[in-house]
Amino acid sequence: MITRCLFVLFSLLLTFQAVANEPQKYSETPMMDKPLMERYVLDELKALRTEQQDLERRLTVQITDRELSVADKSLNYSNITVTYFFYIIAGVASLVALVGWQSLKEIKHNTKEMADKQLSEITLSYEKKFSILERDLKRKSRIITENNREIEIINEIHNLWLRAQSAQTPEQKIETYDDILKIRPGDLEALTHKADAAMEINEYHWALSICNRVLEVDDHNGHALYQRACAYSRLGSEEQAINDLKLAIESSNSLRELAAEEPDFESLRGHSRFEELIDPTETA
């Protein structure tokens, strides 16, 4: 039908175009041909309208039938569902009647007891976990606090070491080393540097005492042995100075070159053991 409509419309279009393109020729056609053409077009339009109405009627009938079919199926499904629902209710009611209200109360009571027991166990379990977690958090918080304090101490000591390096006089260095020892008592490095500063102000006995304190803790401390050797050399104890210098060089071979240019060892120059220590190849 659609093809037929297109054909009629196309014929009309061709007719109008022909009339528009050839007005003179169309005016020469007999007057009797025009009513025939119009009659043909009107008949075709009437037939199209009739077919369109038939198509609408058939579609309406089909849609109505389908809606009725769907409504019927829905009603049937609802009827079956309600029936099954009432069957289930009847079955449950029969089961309750068989078991009895007393059994239902017992079931409720037992269920409550079991739920309370489970809740108690879960509560205890979580209490233990939270207790462990709280203990770990406290321990970690304490460690973090201690680490922060240690970092602050390290930064403060680092600043004091920088201040000691920039100090102009041995007295200022000793004062800075004392500040380090107040923060961290028994710091061996600070003690050995303090002994070095004491040697610079000719406090040889004081330097010797400080070195002995260090060597009581670490008897292989090369820096303390070297400073004590310097103190012994200044105090005239040559053998003790050479013995300490030997131990210092054995712990750190870099001290050999330092000893060769050390002013505190002037009294040892020419001593065979001392010369052998500072230049073993020459003795060989």
UniProtKB/TrEMBL annotation:
Pfam families linked: TPR_8 (PF13181)
Entries under InterPro entries matching the protein: TPR-like_helical_dom_sf, TPR_rpt, Ycf3
Parts of the chain that traverse the membrane: 84-104
Source organism superkingdom: Bacteria
Protein name: Uncharacterized protein
Taxonomic source organism: Vibrio algicola
Protein keywords: Membrane, Repeat, Signal, TPR repeat, Transmembrane, Transmembrane helix
Signal peptide location: 1-20
Keyword check for Membrane: yes
